[in-house]
Amino acid sequence: MAQGKNQAMIDRCMAHNFWTWSRQKEIQPIPVERAQGVFFWDFDGKRYLDFNSMVMCSNIGHGNQQVIDAICKQAQELTFAGPHMATEARARLLEKLCEVVPQGISRFLFTMGGADANENAIKIARAVTGKHKILARYRSYHGASHGAVALSGDLRRVPWEPNVMGGVVHFPATYRYRDDLVPDAMQLADEEYAARHLEYLEKLIQYEGADSIAAIFLEAVTGTNGILIPPDGYLQGIRALCDHYGILMIVDEVMSGFGRTGTWFAVDHWQVKPDLITMAKGLTSAYAPLGAVGMREEVAAYFDRRKFDSGLTYNGHPISFAAATANIDVLQEQKLIRHTQAMQPILLKAFNRLKEKHPAVGDVRGIGLFGAIELIKDKKSETPLGEYGKTPTIMNELQKFTLSKGLFHYVHDNLILVIPPLIVNEEELAMGITILDEALKTTDTVL
Ligand SMILES: Cc1ncc(COP(=O)(O)O)c(C=O)c1O
Predict the structure, then answer these.
(1) Is 221 in the pocket of ligand 1 (CB under 6 A)?
(2) pTM here?
(3) Fewer CB within 10 Å, N side or C side of the chain?
(4) pLDDT for residue 2 is more than 70
């Protein structure tokens, strides 16, 4: 009977919902009734360990009473106010953000999520510099709207071409395990590896014409495309190139912000100060939708006496503001950044054990609680388990298995992503890893 409840819910949603990123008749939605901490439950009472923070966004975990209370209080006091109204909820979030963002970022434009934060960052960069080109990286994702998807350097852009925003030039990401530009990257020290990428990027700037380039736009640590952690010197080098050529540096921290990598923002690991920084997801831990573009005073000052000709009805939803402020309070009060730092070596140790044990595990990497396990056909050839841009059937089977065992995580191409809420403890991490360990037998046996 209980199984019937799950199916009934699926049937009701399937009847009228139009699903994203899916073939409408083939999707198998997961029925979810409630969520608490690092777990969620279906209508049958089955518990799932959330190893993806839903959509890499529930940084403080589910059902946090402090945030729920703040949302309820805000709904009682002032449910909505227009974009040009000065409210307590807006002022409190602005002040709170200034406590945690990289030094120099002091002005914020609010949006609904990540894609529109990125769209607005582009508009601002183009207006401020009077230039139009944007350099962005392959193996990146910046959102699904026409401008943000044009920036995206993975195959999610391609179905919408050529009608996406123009003026984007892509360059290779630092992907040490399979570097497109530096084949011997695994043997190089950070400095040399970073230098080789920066040399290429400088050439690209010259070929494209520095006077036509408004911004270099990148994820500080690449998310879904493989948790690609830049070598030391790389982001600092991009900062230097931007300064030298009069280009703005825009960092997309939609996924990597708010403690995910063990610092407030991923750029903090390298003390790099971007000109603009975009955020969403962990900004509210998804208790309500909100994105933001943070910028330096000099960037915002361009519009001091010129009109910024753009906007959104929900620029300034008080409920989202209240959720964000309470969420940052929780990150601070529960010392979740420090906790994430403490969890990193535990996660990496477990990952390395999986790598030693399973022939299909080629590389493991992670920073904070932002991890990926990359699968290969065999250790000798290190051929990826599946083609670029295609999640092989075996990965989907692996995911079905882990789901049946009560573990929820994402797969992308030949990657297993491990991105749990930052409140996850050692025991819960071990619980998920044990299921992955068992699941990896599936990929070992097809070799
Ligand atoms: C790095 C990055 N930027 C932007 C986005 C787009 O955010 P949204 O889905 O809120 O528009 C995402 C979403 O996954 C992301 O990971």
Answers:
(1) no
(2) 0.97
(3) N
(4) no
